[in-house]
Design a protein that fits this description.
Elements (H helix, E strand, L loop, with lengths): L6 E3 L3 E2 L13 E4 L2 E4 L7 E6 L8 H16 L8 E7 L10 E6 L7 E9 L6 E9 L4 E2 L9 E2 H12 L8 E6 L2 E7 L20 H10 L5 H4 L1 E9 L2 E2 L4 E6 L5 E5 L6 E7 L2 E8 L23 E2 L4 E3 L4 E9 L3
Parallel strand pairs: 5-6, 5-7, 7-9, 10-11, 14-22
Antiparallel strand pairs: 1-8, 2-8, 3-4, 8-9, 12-13, 14-15, 14-18, 16-17, 16-19, 19-20, 19-21
Helix pairs in contact: 1-2
Length: 332
């Protein structure tokens, strides 16, 4: 079998940056003339931890935080995947050595990057062969159960990066505010939001509805399609499709938020993994953040339109989908 010459580096989790507000994406790769979802096909995912700590955190504590993060993803009831800690290694978390390694690495040159995930893939299938995650020792780290003021929570950042390792891209489901030096997260409805909470908090240790829908869509269990539903349709402006628009489904009963993007030139979108019931649907532009954190720079993402609610309540059936939802937007 031809092994993947293709190597993908995900968008890293950053400490400060601009950011928009809504939706999950899956990582993808080109296989021939088509794009396939980047995912693991063999389980358990066998991983090593670099036998090196940093100030206040031992390598054993790194392994414990990483294992807790893996377990959180594996506990999602609608998804099925597994992992196995193989042991400690002297190897750094760098791609191309044939082993999946997570651990600390000194990268002072990446002054805004807390952690990042890289991949080696099989270029004939898109299956992940190897993935590596580094946590940047240029930042202060903590594994305290309650968090430590001024220190970033390792388990929270590991949960985000392992989401990438499993195939999820960034979610834009969050809110930030301007401050000196960048932006501060004031709320996030997804672990996969690209900006970390401020140092000292452990709010990033719990998955949200958007994360759960995304991981279930990649690794669905036997009952996933029977128990969840979807909303699909198009985002259009003056009769033409809008690429890269945020579409958010708000569960009117539980107040959970799950999002998707219009991912084709005709403006088509699908939001899957939804609990059955009534939803309000909203579309908004990706206009207040770094578009390249979500989409390839070569794509013509349209941000010149006003946010808009769909004028009807959308009812999602159990085990089915509601289609034909057209969100008509107008230019700003």
């Amino acid at each position: 079998m031809k092994r993947g010459a293709a190597v993908l580096l995900t968008a890293a989790l950053v400490a400060v940056s601009s950011a928009p507000t809504a939706a999950y994406l899956k990582l993808g790769t080109r296989v021939g003339t088509r794009t396939v979802t980047l995912k693991w096909t063999q389980f358990p995912i066998r991983y090593f931890v670099t036998d090196r700590g940093t100030t206040g955190v031992t390598s054993t504590q790194v392994q414990q935080a990483v294992q807790a993060a893996f377990s959180t993803w594996e506990a999602v009831p609608s998804a099925t995947m597994s992992s196995q800690f193989v042991g400690f290694t002297l190897a750094n978390p760098v791609r191309g050595d044939g082993a999946t390694v997570l651990g600390f690495q000194s990268r002072p040159d990446l002054e805004r990057t807390l952690g990042a995930t890289s991949f080696i893939i099989d270029s004939t299938t898109g299956a992940v062969i190897e993935s590596d995650i580094f946590f940047n020792t240029a930042f202060p780290w903590s594994v305290s159960a309650q968090g430590d003021t001024g220190f970033f929570d390792l388990q929270s950042i590991a949960l985000h990066e392992i989401g990438h390792l499993l195939g999820l891209a960034h979610s834009a489901m969050g809110e930030t505010e301007l401050r000196a030096g960048g932006r501060r997260v004031i709320a996030a409805e997804a672990v996969m939001f690209p900006i970390a909470f401020s140092a000292g908090t452990i709010l990033g240790r719990s998955l949200r509805a958007d994360d759960i829908a995304g991981i279930g869509d990649i690794y669905p269990n036997a009952t996933y399609t029977r128990n969840t539903g979807s909303i699909s349709g198009k985002v259009t402006k003056s009769g033409t499709g809008v690429l890269g628009a945020h579409v958010i489904a708000f569960d009117l009963r539980t107040e959970k938020l799950v999002g998707g993007f219009s991912l084709t030139d005709d403006g088509s979108f699908v939001i899957a993994g939804l609990d059955p019931g009534p939803y309000a649907v909203r579309v908004e532009p990706l206009d207040d953040g770094d578009i390249e954190s979500f989409f390839d720079a070569t794509l013509n993402v349209d941000v010149n339109f006003r946010a808009q609610f769909y004028d009807k309540i959308v009812v999602v059936p159990k085990g089915g989908g509601t289609s034909g939802v057209e969100l008509k937007v107008v230019a700003k």
